[in-house]
Amino acid sequence: MDARAAVFTILLCVLFGANAVAIKISLVGLGVFTTAGIRFGIAAMVILLWALLTGKPVRVSFYQFKLMVVLGLIFYVQLSLFYLGLSRTTASHGTLIANILPFVVLVLAHYFIEEEFISLKKVIGLILGFCGVLLLLGDAGQLDRDVLVGDLFVLSAVLIWGGNAIYTKRIIGSFQPSQITLYPVAISAPLFLLTALFLDREMVRYVDGSILTAMAYQAFVTASFGLIGWTMMIKRYGASTLHSFIFIMPISGVFFGVVMLGEPLTMGLIGSIVLVTVGLIVVNSSPRGLGQKKYYHYIFPGKQ
């Protein structure tokens, strides 16, 4: 990866990390499910337009569509929990908990993906990451009960997100990136809006410039063009290369949460970001643990 590509990847990670802040700003004037529905509705149209203009494949077979429906439903559940969580907790907490996703995927992949095993370095990274989350949950209990409830919602979303990632990895071979990006977003968007009609107390309380900017950020920067850019970079440089940069996301989320929203910078939050960030660096800098299962089988049993 050359310098320009590295700078672009860093920028994407910063932008993705700040997304929780944009969601929090939107939730001031819009309902939880309304925010999600508008964001992913716009993103679906943008991704579809991009695919049509660039000649990317969009049509799928009936069998592929059934797989996409499952993926879309999982996407809907995980994002519902994530948005509900962010409506109660801080952007800093939400971002940090969301960034344990690689650890969750690592454990699930050990059981459900052929030839995926956990090395000693990855075990250390896992311990660091989850210790960071435990520290954050303890910090949440000292701040406000709602923050703790929100953290648990986000944590539940991440656990489902991990299952989503494993399911996607198992079926992705029969899809193009444009298809796997478009369909979950397009399927979930109307479900969010339908849910908003029944569960949002007020779909729209008020709209101002900051809320419109935050919605545009979520819809165009992260959910469409950012996702497209990330997919293209993965295709060109590979997932392992890009994942070495993801430790930037929790740092970005906490920084913007403190600076833009005035969220408290507690010792628990600082300790958590250190543990999660170091854990991500350790996990993503280590080689695949192939051939090491005999040493770590007692920690993560399930493969013979």
Overall outline: globular
Main sheet summary: none
Euclidean distance between termini CA atoms: 37 Å
Helix-residue proportion: over 70%
Radius of gyration: 19 Å
**Poorly predicted runs:** 288-304
Number of helices: 14
Question: Helix- and strand-based class?
Answer: mainly alpha
Q: Report the portion of residues in β strands.
A: under 5%
Topology as a string of helices (H) and strands (E): HHHHHHHHHHHHHH
**Tally of strands:** 0
Number of domains: 1
Mean pLDDT: 86
General description of the model:
With 304 residues, the chain is mainly alpha-helical. It has one domain (3-296). 78% of the residues lie in helices and 0% in strands. It has helices at residues 3-17, 19-27, 32-54, 62-86, 91-98, 101-112, 120-143, 145-171, 177-199, 209-237, 239-243, 248-261, 267-285, 293-296. The longest helix has 29 residues, at 209-237. The protein is globular. The two termini are 37 Å apart. The model is unreliable at 288-304 (pLDDT under 50).
Short synopsis of the structure:
The chain has 304 residues and is mainly α. Helix content is 78%, strand content 0%.
What distinguishing features does this structure have?
304 residues, mainly alpha, 14 helices, 78% helix, globular, disordered C terminus
Question: Which helices and strands occur, and which strands form pairs?
Answer:
Blueprint: H1 3-17, H2 19-27, H3 32-54, H4 62-86, H5 91-98, H6 101-112, H7 120-143, H8 145-171, H9 177-199, H10 209-237, H11 239-243, H12 248-261, H13 267-285, H14 293-296
